[in-house]
Each structure stands twice: as C-alpha cells, then as structure tokens.
Hints:
- The structure holds 2 protein chains of 2 kinds.
- By secondary structure, chain A is an all-alpha fold.
- In chain A, 76% of the residues lie in helices and 0% in strands.
- In chain A, helix 2 runs antiparallel to helix 3 (39-56), helix 2 packs across helix 6 (124-135) and helix 6 runs antiparallel to helix 7 (140-147).
- Chain B has 2 domains: 7-91, no CATH class; 102-424, TolB, C-terminal domain (Neuraminidase, 6 Propeller).
- Chain B is of the alpha+beta class.
- Residues 51-63 and 84-91 of chain B have low confidence and may be disordered.
- Chain B is built from 5 helices and 27 strands.
- In chain B, strand 20 (311-315) and strand 21 form a beta hairpin.
- At the A-B interface, helix 2, helix 3, helix 5, helix 6 and helix 8 of A face helix 1, helix 2 and helix 3 of B.
Amino acid sequence: MQQELVERARRGDHDAFASLAAAAIFRLDAAARLILRDPDQAKDAVQETLVRAWRDLPTLRSSARFDAWLHRLLYRACIDEARRLRRHRLDVDLTPIDHPAFDDETAAMADRDQLERGFSRLEPEARALIVLHHYLDLPLPEVAIALEIPLGTAKSRLHRALQVMRAALDADARPRAELAEGRLA
Amino acid sequence: MTLNDGFDRTVSEWLDELAGRGAPAYLDEVLARTIRTRQRPAWSSLERWLPVAITFRARTAPMPRPLWALILIAVLAVAAALLVLAGVGQRRLPHFGTAANGGIAFVDGGDLKVAGPDGSTNRSLISLPAGAGAMSYSPDGTRLVYRTNEAAPSIIVVDADGTHATSVASGASVAADGPITWSPDSRRLAFTGLINGRANVVLVNADGSRLAPLGQAAGLQLRERSHPAWSPDGQWISFFTPEAQGYVGLYVVHPDGTDEQRLSTSPINPDILEMSWAPDPSQRRLAYVSGGFVKMFDLATSKETSVGTGFWATWSSDASHISWLSGGTQVARVDDILAGNARSIHPFAQWTGYCQEHPELAGKAICSPAQWSPDSVWVYGPDIAGKSIVLAKADGSQPARTIALDHPINVADLSGWAVAWQPVAP
C-alpha cells in the first residue's frame, strides 16, 4: 500500500503524498523533538523534510526505500537546524542540582532527569543516532545509511553516546547512593 | 534502575515516554507548502544513475584528488562532445533573442507549402486534405504544429521539412479550439480541450506523450480554463476562466498546476478572447483585449495600460513593438505606449468596416492579426481579398509585397488556413 502511494506521489500525485505525510508526521515530529530538544525547531525540521521529500521524490530510485530515505532527509534537516541554532544561540550548561531525599518514585524521576541531562549533553548528531536506533527502532545498518556514515562508525558512535548517558546516570547516582548511606549527611 | 543491565531498553522506554503521543497540528501547513513546490525531474539525481554504493561512498569517504580530477575531466569531455554533436546536427535557437527569417509556411488548397524569406519561390511540403489552422513554428524553428480542419480534428506536429508527422492529440473533445502554444523550450504544447464537456487547458509533449489536463497531477481544481499562452520564461501558463456576471478573469499557473493566481486585471469582456505574452522573458507582460480595448498587463507591477481601441494584438518577436487592428493594422513601440506618447504606424493600407467590403485593397491590406517575422522587421497576414499573403515592413518604409495563393481563401473563416514564419539561427 505504501509503495503504491510512493509510486503515485513520485509521479506527482499530491494526494498520495498527503497520505504518506499524514502517516509519517507523528514519528518524524517526535524524532525531531528528541534530536533537537525544541518543538519549534522540530517543526521547522519536519516541514523542511517533507517539502524536500515531495520535491525530490521523483529522484527516489526504489519506492521500497521510502522510509529509509525519509529518515535520512529528517536527519539532514535536524542537523541543519541545529547548526543554524548554534549560530544564533549560546547553549547554557546546566549546573548540577542539589539532591533532595529519595524514595523509589523520586529516584525514578531523578533517573529520567539524569538521562535527560546526559542526552542533552550529546551533540545533535549523536542524539540522532540514538533516536533512530532506540526510538525509531531502525537497525544499525539503516541508521548508518540515514546518517551517511559507515556501519563501523555508527556502531562506535552509538557506543560512545550511550556511554555518555550512562556516565551521567552513574555520576548522579553516586551522590544519591552516598547520601542514602549517610556519608554526605 | 539497574545501571548496567538493560540500559538499551531503558533508553528506548525513556525516549518513548519523552516523545509523547498525538500527531502534530501542522500537517496542513506542510501540505500547503508542498503543493506549491515543484518536483525535481527524476534525471536530476545522481542516485538515479549510479549505484547507491557509489554515491553513498562518495558522500562518506572523500575521493583522492587525482580521481576527482580525472572524473571532472571526463565529464567535461563528454559535455563538450555532446555540445559539438548537437551543433553539427542543427543550429538551435536560444529561447529568446533575435532570430533570422527562415521559410514562410502556409496552407494553399490541400498543400502545406513553404516560400523563401523573400517570398520568391515556394514548394509543397505535405498534403493537407483537411486543411490546417492554428499553425506555428516551435520557438527553436525545428517543428511545426497545426490543427486539422475536420469534424474530429487532430493536432499534428511535423518536422520543419514536412517529415515525421505525429498526431499528438485527436478527437473533437481533445483538440477542440483556440490557439496552440509552445513551451519556450519547444518540448511541450498547451491548447484548449474539452474535458467532461468543459473547456480546459490540455498539455502534451511534442512527441505525443503525457497528454493530460493542466494540473492533473497537482490536483488543480477542475473548472473552465481556455486560451492558454505559455510565458517566455516557461514558468507560467496564462488562461481565461469565466467569472461572475459573464466576465472572464485572466489567470496564471505553473505548468505543473501549482500556484494558480488571478491577475488583478479589470473584469474582461469575453466577446473577444485573445491573450499573448511579450516574447521577452524579462518583461513579464501580457496583452489582451477587453471591451473593445487592447490592454497590456505588467505582472511585476500589476499595472494595466491601455494600448488603444481595437483587437488582434500581437507582439513583435523582440517584444519592442505591438500591433493591433483599428482602422487597419497599427504598430507602435511598447516603450512609447508605456510612456503615454505612442505614435502608431499603419504598415498596410488603412480601412474600416468589414474585410469583404474592400476588394480594392487586395494585396495592400490584411484581414487577420498581423504576424511578425522572426527578425521583427516584417508584419504579414492573409490579403484582405484572400488571394495572397501580404508582407510589409513594420515601420511602413516599403510598400507591401505578396506571395500569391493558388487557391483563394475565405478571410471571414480562416479555420482551415494558416501561415507561419520559421525562425532560424542568425
């Protein structure tokens, strides 16, 4: 069904493209928000992705590759958007916060905060790698193609990116454990 | 949370939670943008021609400089060879610029004939049992298009030497009526057809492929459209569409059916529907007729300028002059008209009333829109008595001269008669 829509859209059928866009826009928007951490920027990136997709669709060689191709366009649009933002805004480093008392629920929330912190410390390229693999569930070879990097590079970058997130969680978990043991009290 | 086990799953779940649910609200906004965006042709992508492995590698791993240089040299050599080959076969015209005068093609009885630029000799190209109308040369001068004069007419494209006739559209509903306009690159044609009983602009490639109503692929709203004219920059097709109180509006749309717009002209009286673009793409100017006045509309400024009373407006090939019929054929400089101090010239004998009332002007005046030679020096058309083709210098500096017709024509009905002057490279 999707391939038929892609074929029609490639031949200039805008209604077919509208169906494809409607089916894809949620996951594109979500992925872009995760990569860019800014809903307005994400919207711009998704718009750019879909406009480019429509414009360049006749050049797509295989309709079966539509999703992979769309992800590549999204990645490029996100990176362009991130670079544009870098030129206009200084990112502010988050200062480590004080750690209050912890129960299981607040500990889970704190974990999410630390994941968020670790994730935010990553470059958009690394965030894209994680989002494509862990949120969109693309296999690594597909991620490598979308990011236009060799598979080996994708593997090593993903490993490093996850290490950064894990390190953030480790670092923030350490004082919490020490607090629980009374060493910092 | 365990930090060492299942971290990948934790990240996935966290991302899923962070992404949230619900579709964003800007889909319509995106689609409004895409529908205004023209699609790239398929051939324009490297990946259509080379294996993905190569294009992918090219993006990810820079090639050594010598290899790049060799590829660049090879591409340039191929391009140069193609240019040479193209030049050997035929000298094609640029899309705009002064052309030289080639032969004059015209219908004479059952034949399509061609006379030399001086009108001195003529020869038959092909037989036309059903006559021909709406004839014109492609902008590059290599082909002719005309409509046969039959109950179920056909639109025929033929090489300039009369060979390789191709029917690109046929049937009363498809090849209905009105002018046939070439795209500036000489590859496509637009004309008025009847789609589901309603006039609509139809596009077709000059080889007969891709016959389709204007904007079909883009989902352009179906409504009546007629009298298409292709802008000289190839970016727009203009047409008329009926509006309230019996008037028509003048519209433009991209050839792919996107970005349809109504030009801000006054309502146009549909008694005489004619429209033509100034051939100079830098001018973006249209001439049309409304309420007995010839008018020009400048797309850049949306300014409407009255040329004068009359009709049958035509542009010189270099867009410097415009002609129209009022007391005979008049010619004026466009710049003078825009400046408000136009002085018109009558290159042919002056007359008023009906063509048939002036047999004494045979060979001295025309009874049709004045057509222009490719070099913009001459204006010409069928003799007011239907016995010849009359040519005169547009500046009125020489008396008219004629190309005799073996078979006289009825100037009140020129549907099966036509004349066109071939542009050739200077």
